[in-house]
Structures are given as structure tokens and as C-alpha cells.
Amino acid sequence: MKVINFLKSAKRTLFSFEILPPLKGHTIQSIYETIDPLLEFNPININVTYHQEETSYRQLKNGLLEKKTIWKRPGTVAISASIKYKYQNIIVVPHLICGGFSKEETENALIDLNFLGMNNILALRGDPPRAQRTFMPEENGHENTIGLIRQIIDMNKGIYLDEELRNIESTNFSVGIAGYPEKHIEAPNMETDLKYLKEKIDAGAEYIVTQMFFDNSKYFDFVDKCRKIGIDVPIVPGIKPIRNFSDFKLIPMIFNISYPQTFVDAIQQCTNNEQVKQVGIEWCISQTRELIKYGVPALHFFTIGKSDNVFEIAKAIF
């Protein structure tokens, strides 16, 4: 089963969501606790994010710095497999990123996913680690998502890195990508960002999941601009309910998005996080109702590890 087939044949707005792998040392039970309440709404797919290793430095007693590599949220492939076999009617979409992977490691990861029967991928470049201001590809890795998509599509054609392989089998991956209604933070302008987006579609990506936004006019304008330059694939809006004051302050800085003033006014009237959470739920209910009326193929929710607020939204709209 492929996500794109559901999106193209949807008779109503579908429901999907994204989860984070648990922090290292934690169990997978938290993932199931996030998923279980949302099964009521018949999700067509669950996305599993991938997180690159991070580098930190610890000062030793002699004053020198010790470099340490940390992988805070490992296990994307294993978690994807666990979800696939526990919830058998739901498509699992693991994220695959450029950062931290050589092309050979990417190929091996794709082989693992193919063996596990997972043929849906969300292809992303990935953010640079916190200690790194700009993205740096792994040695012999992909500099951007376009190269990653081309490698996946090559494997679908039976083309592997080792040209001497014989009697090889083609894979059957479907590729989704991210889109940015308010442009990617590194793009110099929206026109350039859309140009790169079109190149990803031309390379073989079949659908787009957008970055979060809080003003539906941003999404409507984004879709219109995509259609005008020949991007005709399904464009799924990404939705993130604000949960607390920390979310409210950090999200615009991290993700290069803006809030409508009416939303800002509503949050600023709150005196505690519980009130902020309720405003976030109510805003998303109103936002998603308008998107459903517009005719979006699906709504994709970013749970960030907790699904109680997404449950309240879904309960109101589905």
C-alpha cells in the first residue's frame, strides 16, 4: 500500500500523523501510548522522524575539550517495523535524511526498509546539528534532497551504487517530500524555494507534506504558486497545535513561521499552559475545518510525542 494511492483516490479528507522516536534509554511504550488513542480516526499513515547524531564537547580537568557524539533518538527503522507489525492496517512512513548518511549507508538503509516491506519514504535533507550553523553533508553523502530522491528512484529502476551487481531486483518506493508555505529558513526567497521544490517533484517525489502553519491563507497561496509552476501532486497541510508558552515562543524562531495577530492576542490573554493548550486546540479546530472545506486530501498532525490535544482536534472534525 502506498500513501500516494490513498491521497489521489480520497473521497474525503484523510487523517495522518507524525511521531518522534523516544529518547535513548526509554521504551517504545510511549510510542504506543501516542498512537492508540488516535486509531479511532482511521489514520492512513504514521510518519516516524529520523534524527541525526549530534556532537557535544565536555571540558576535562586539564582544560582540554573532549568531543562526544550523541544519538539522542535512535531507532527509526526498528520503530517503523514495530508499528507496521502491531498496527497492520496503517501505512508506516519512515523519514530518511541526507545528514549523517553516506550514499552507501543510504542504500543499505533502503535495502533494510525494502526487506521489511516498507515502501513509503519521506525524503528530507535534515537540519544541521545544533552546534553546526550550516548543513554539511557526510563524506560521499547527499548535499540536498534532490540527490536522495534520485538515489531512491534509481533503486526503483534496479540501479545500485555497485555497477557490478547482477540479477538485482528493483525496489518499489514511493517518495514524499516537505514543502514550506512560508519558505524554508535557508531559502533566499519563496521563488527560489519553489524552484527547488519543483526539481524534487521532477526527480520523482509524488506528494508534499507542508511545514506547520497557523494562517491558512499561507497554505492556500502556497498551493496556488505550486500549481502555477506545474507542481500538480497532492499537497498535504501539516498541522501543529501549540501546547504551551514554550511552543509559542520557540516555533517561529526554529521553523521560520509567523502567527496571525488574532492568534497572538488569544495566547497573550492566557495565564498558564493549560489555557495555552486549549487555545491551541480551538485554533486548530477552526483551522482544519476551513482546510477540509477547501478540499485538502489529508490533514497531517505533528504530535511531538503527545497526542491528547490532537485527539481533541480530530474528535471535533472527523
Notes on the protein architecture:
- The mean pLDDT is 91.
- It is built from eleven helices and ten strands.
- It has helices at residues 3-9, 29-35, 76-86, 103-115, 145-156, 190-203, 216-228, 245-255, 261-268, 273-294, 308-317, and strands at 14-19, 45-48, 54-59, 65-70, 91-97, 120-124, 174-179, 207-212, 235-239, 298-302.
- It has an eight-stranded parallel barrel with strand order 1-2-5-6-7-8-9-10, surrounded by six helices. Strands 3-4 form a two-stranded antiparallel ribbon.
- With 318 residues, the chain is α/β, with parallel strands linked by helices.
- It is 40% helix and 18% strand.
- Helix 4 (103-115) packs across helix 5 (145-156), helix 5 (145-156) packs parallel to helix 6 (190-203) and helix 10 packs parallel to helix 11 (308-317).
